[in-house]
Amino acid sequence: MKNVLVTGFTGQVGSLLVDYLLENTSYNVYGMMRWQEPLINVKHLTNRINSRDRIFVKYADLCDYSSLDSLIDAVRPDYIFHLAAQSFPKTSFDIPLETLQTNVVGTCALLEIVKKYKLSSDYDPVIHICSSSEVYGKAALGQSLNEDTKFHGASPYSISKIGTDYLGQFYGEAYGLKTFVTRMGTHSGPRRSDVFFESTVAKQIALIEAGLQDPFINVGNLTSVRTYQDARDAVRAYYLLAEKSAQGGIRPGDYFNIAGEEAFKLTEVIDILVGYSKVEGIVVRTDESRLRPIDADYQMFDNEKIKSTINWMPVISARQMFLDLLNNWRDQIQNGNIPLNR
Fold first, then answer.
1. Helix and strand element counts for the chain (H, E)
2. Domain hosting residue 151, numbered range
3. pLDDT tens digits for 312-323?
């Protein structure tokens, strides 16, 4: 039976990918996490983890080479989905060194370890390197972003993902590692962290409905125009690309945009979410602390490359995604998991 390693499996995308793999494959799944990470996104898997039913937890840290080395040596995964990262663009302005250390140096360490075992024992897994659409930064109005669009670092996070992106390409081209790189556009849905725009709006609406917040939604920049996709669609693309790579159908180091095809102004996102609310008269106001020094405020994508490589397209509508996100926050609060008002 094949083994799959998912780094960052307690995050939104990682946990959804694990769900997809358990439902759609017979593979053993190993979830990498740091010991102190919150488990709320994988609590539904607790019984399976405890009974070792195809899902196993492994403790390691991207900033600790020896723990990564021990993990890869012990598991020898056939597939590595590398999703772990410091993933919050706004936070990266406050912790740029940690962001670069985790995302760039940590990714390099993982690839160096795989390279070492490949050279010494012919170990040769498929490696998915998760980059980000943030590598394109502040795009020109009306520009369609394809895989050859010039990079523009608009935050320490985006700069770190540019480094991650290039590492994935380099180790494929230079050493023949079976890497492929994905640049996912704005994505959301259940389990989305509340530091991201649409999720903090949904969370605040759920808090208002529960009587835990006054009827005001605090937001930052509302000038952005973005495509949205459901992360559940994106993880399906991850899996299909990995299988294609395993079959030799992807050039080592190749890279792909994965983006939604429905575009919204952020004001429209607020209107949609407020429209689902049970409370009338909710007021939106700008919170200066939520603004970034520079913002990637226009992102529209060209998905043609990935569609020509695998049989994939987004199938979950953005409006359904927004509703599922709001209901997820409602469920969390109803079950007593009260989030910070931030």
1. 12, 14
2. 3-188+230-258
3. 999 999 999 999
